Prior knowledge:
- This protein has eleven helices and 15 strands.
- With about 325 residues, the chain is an alpha/beta fold.
- The chain folds into two domains: about 1-115 and about 255-315, Medium-chain alcohol dehydrogenases, catalytic domain (Quinone Oxidoreductase, Chain A, domain 1); about 120-250, 3-Layer(aba) Sandwich (Rossmann fold), CATH 3.40.50.
- Helix 3 (about 115-130) crosses helix 4 and helix 3 (about 115-130) crosses helix 9 (about 260-270).
Amino acid sequence: xxxxxxxxxxxxxxxxxxxxxxxxxxxxxxxxxxxxxxxxxxxxxxxxxxxxxxxxxxxxxxxxxxxxxxxxxxxxxxxxxxxxxxxxxxxxxxxxxxxxxxxxxxxxxxxxxxxxxxxxxxxxxxxxxxxxxxxxxxxxxxxxxxxxxxxxxxxxxxxxxxxxxxxxxxxxxxxxxxxxxxxxxxxxxxxxxxxxxxxxxxxxxxxxxxxxxxxxxxxxxxxxxxxxxxxxxxxxxxxxxxxxxxxxxxxxxxxxxxxxxxxxxxxxxxxxxxxxxxxxxxxxxxxxxxxxxxxxxxxxxxxxxxxxxxxxxxxxxx
Length: 318
């Protein structure tokens, strides 16, 4: 099969590689489209290796057709989307049955590939972990990104007041179109002062850089969940301030979870989020698509910081 391979200095090339061999409980998927995530950039740079035993090929989400159901209950030809530990930037990928999900009704392969990772990440954190409630004030860092644009829509559906940070007026305007209530340009404003003691929930992609400011912004009993480290891995925490607010800080990742835990998240996402996609209450946010062979161009676009929503690689027609 053809797949994108990481070569010297983190460059990407389309090469011929062996088709995956199925393990017990896996199905072989013919990939039609694969989502591009910032984690892929980290892996290409040598900073985010796949879990032991998983594919070295990039790609944490895809959509396609079951080619070989193996020992699973799926049938050859079933249209599916998939949450992956790796392997999406390829013509075929082997996927545990618990990480497969139906393609939302009315969605194309590319549209489905654009929502798997964001839907499971956002729902597992603000739905399953922090329990976002109507009336909560919810701060989303990177509001115009793939995670952010999905989180805004889900939070508004829940009934929260949504605050976002972004680095340009254009990105803030896009957040507003999706329903964000409080728009903060982090280049011009200190979000922790604008939102001092107001945030019931915070979804953080920055890590160390925003640690102290996030605690400053938390309301009494507030809960911050960190899912990224774009601002570094080591920061100083004012435990006294956190203690006084009875605050909670969690850190989560999807890729390193067990297959059983991923299956639990996937099932909950199908039950709670897929109906919102099918009804149009939440819409996919595809910024652009690229042929698989142009994966390097997609990575360059994401690195440049001008993307709103998601980038998708189109692997096969359909």
